[in-house]
Amino acid sequence: MASSAVLTLMLLAASLLLPWSSLAALWGDDRQLAWTVLAQLRLPRALLALTYGAMLGASGAAIQALFANPLASPDLTGTTSGAALGAVVSAYTLAFASPLALSVGAVAGALGALVLLLALAGPRAETATLLLAGLAISALAGALTTLALALAPSPFAFYDAYEWLMGSLADRSLDQALFALIPSIAATALLLRQVPALDSLTFGEDAAAAMGHDVRGTRLWVVTLSAVGVGACVAICGAIGFIGLVAPVFARRLTRGHAGRALLPAAVIGAALLLAADLAVRTAPLGRTLPIGVVTAILGAPFFLWLVARMRWRLS
Amino acid sequence: MMALARGRSLRTERRLQPTDLEIGSGSLTALVGPNGSGKTSLLHALAGVPPAAGSVEVGGTPIHGQPPVLRQRLVGLLTADRHVAWPIAGRDLLAFGTAQQGNCEPVVAALALEPLLDGRVDRLSSGERARLLLGRLLASDPQLLLLDEPLANLDPYWQLVVMDMLRERVASRQRSVVLAVHDLTTAVRYADRLLLISEGAIVWDGRPTDLQASGEADRVFGAEWSGADWRLNPTADRRSSP
């Protein structure tokens, strides 16, 4: 846990200061420009990577503990696609494009997706049911997002939204970043209060209730807080996948398999993963920047396949 | 005998009819009844598990609204579902929610749990996992122990050990045990009191040895109970009833 926190801090420093020449520039001739770059470009970007990653990790861990399933995560349950749909509808159909309106739209979309998932798959869904329901919700949200963009009055809607939907941390102002930051920090902090109840769900809902935990309340909190935190991040940075799936898997190694208390480590690891992915995007010698969502998906999807394969080996 | 636990208007929508129940301090009560008669529902209602409603007091303290640490000192439930969702270590399972670590050692010795402690629970057999889950509950030592089929998955040796342990808790520590069992022989042999449940209501309540004479078991189960063994009763076969 401590080592992953140190790693995250190192990545944060690297994210702010790389390339190293910029460090020298802070005290060089053009120091005003260098400080402006640091404060207005790098700082919001690093803070967004930190909070979005942490939020994905924490909500991924909470959703996995809630469903008692290591294959649940905000993106696989359709939460992120729901949030993207909500934000697109808010911006292009209703023409409310302020950060606040985008956030409200995205949170509503994420909440809708999670409630639909609970209704479709039930609280103790089998892996197959959970993934199929999540897939169906993602597909539906994706199709509705395309529809909303196709019907949008602006001819540039597709191009605009495409870049944003792929997920990007670049060129966000500090003000915009705060719209993701504040809800995420609040949601993560409140999610931590659910840790004992989430841990006790290891023994099933009835046993958890007999231990004195309010299981229905926990379910409500996890769904709402995940939707608020992830929705707010999606509104600012678009959909970034797989961090919410991967981070809790590593976090549970630190908590000896306990799913609930993996929440905080998962937040730290999620932050480290997204900071690392953003550093990779920024420093990759490709001549142009890749959307960060593409990078996390390229690295995360094989990991997901490996998880599925490992589950199959265990069952057989 | 002093009452340890009082349950008032315990009920669930589907299975359990409104029931008032007192459990004596230092007693072992067996719930018996046909499949689907409401044994599990009654146990869950006593443990305060939703969707069951009603109020439960243990030693004069209502269990509802107690913080988990206090609640687990009052009442402990072993559910019929012995699935453990995450691959935690046996040691962590045993100590889960147990405030005092010291309580684990006698249970570890009595149930021979030592070899199960370092491995992951998903790699244990269902019988080994059942012993660990039971061990956890005994280590947390609640005043009222509610056990749903505690002998399921256990071989005869462990069945005897577990029942002896439960009797010892009842006798020496004045704990109360309520267990749902489908095996009437076990119920008669170990219980101080037997509750026969049919269609969500307690239809017979008394000393296990009096059950045969009452004829209630024959009527409820649709088979003849000799006091030690069962025989199908051709005149009251449940398959022929609507």
TrEMBL record, chain A:
Its main location: membrane. The keyword Cell membrane applies. SUPFAM superfamilies: ABC transporter involved in vitamin B12 uptake, BtuC. The chain crosses the membrane at residues 48-69, 100-121, 128-152, 220-250, 262-284, 290-309. Keywords: Cell membrane, Membrane, Transmembrane, Transmembrane helix, Transport. Pfam families: FecCD (PF01032). It is a multi-pass membrane protein. One of its GO terms (cellular component) is plasma membrane. The keyword Oxidoreductase does not apply. One of its GO terms (molecular function) is transmembrane transporter activity. It is found in: Cell membrane. InterPro entries: ABC_BtuC-like, ABC_transptr_permease_BtuC. Belongs to the binding-protein-dependent transport system permease family. FecCD subfamily. This is Vitamin B12 ABC transporter, permease protein BtuC. It comes from uncultured Sphingomonas sp.
